[in-house]
Amino acid sequence: xxxxxxxxxxxxxxxxxxxxxxxxxxxxxxxxxxxxxxxxxxxxxxxxxxxxxxxxxxxxxxxxxxxxxxxxxxxxxxxxxxxxxxxxxxxxxxxxxxxxxxxxxxxxxxxxxxxxx
Length: 117
Prior knowledge:
Layout: E1 2-3, H1 7-10, H2 22-33, H3 35-48, E2 55-56, H4 57-64, H5 68-80, E3 84-89, E4 92-97, H6 99-113
């Protein structure tokens, strides 16, 4: 499995805001607000453990009951927000969770629970 990295592969992809910034947290919140995207994340979490290799669009679409087109759209939103990562394995694009994004969200949420009376 090789990582995306050529200019042609990534030229149209927006650069996510730096980890932990308000913009990144806002993008993450918008990305996980949709039920279909949360379902994709659940499948990626459950079906790729323990190696977290990732799943193809076809595998994700079948597991969530959405079309490949819809899965592709929702995965793009997740990638743009930095919540999901994509690599290429031959002709397949493999998607997996970017756990760092959730650690950033956890850090932000813990700031509030730490300040309870």
